[in-house]
Amino acid sequence: MTIFLQSLLSGVLIGGAYALIGVGLTIIFGVMRIINFAHGDLVMLGMYASYFLFTLGNVDPFVSIVFVFPLLFLFGAILQKTVINKVLNALPQNQILLTIGIGLILSNTMMLLFTSDYRIISTSYSSGSFRLGEISVSTPLLLSFVITAAVTAILYWFLLKTDTGQAIRATAQDRDAAQLMGVNVKRMSVLATGIGAGLAAVAGSLISPTYYIFPQVGQPFTLKAFVIVVLGGMGSVMGATVGGVLIGATESLAGAYISSGLKDLVVYVLFLLILLFKPAGLFGKSRV
Hints:
Strand order of the largest sheet: 1-2
CATH topology: ABC transporter involved in vitamin B12 uptake, BtuC
Mean pLDDT: 89
Number of domains: 1
């Protein structure tokens, strides 16, 4: 039972960061209807930004989200205005190829600038933990989860209670109807892409104390983000949140009881089984 609870807790804690990555992707898809294959590379940029803020400015990686979010929000907004907006009405395969190309440019640019060497953020709490009965709780994972929960709560408040958030939701539900009701859908697209990029970068900052940082680190997160979004239901913020925690818990339990080398396989089997019985995902309505 101790192993089960230990694995479950660790999985839920890391699943919080997964959820934040998935929420960022689902907001972009919900508003723009574009599948962003560069999403994991935005996570990677967040990790590098936190690394350099820590090494050059001694800014704690959990504090660095205050700087990383607006920086990547601006980057995502510019990317949407200058590049992605050009293919909104193009064929889906052209949109996919564009975002794959953006991801390759980002990762290879970082490799050119900083080489492929692994980097790590070593803080006073990077390997810290405390006991909760017989269970060991990782300090960085717990802090990451608490901050993730706070960021997610702020996002829900923004989407549900503010005029801009409701305009984003309206654009996600029906772009043409929202435009007829006076919503500036082009502006909402820019905001959605910026928010999605910012959330991905925040997730990168939160996991940077526990992951190696290198230019290709974002690729696995792109795949995980798609599994989370499809599992939760395309366009559903709640679905992405639940899906992220579920994937994290499944990974951790599979690593403890089956094999750490097969944990990804178990995740994808679970993913296929859920879609087999609920093809629309856990929260099957395509809306933000």
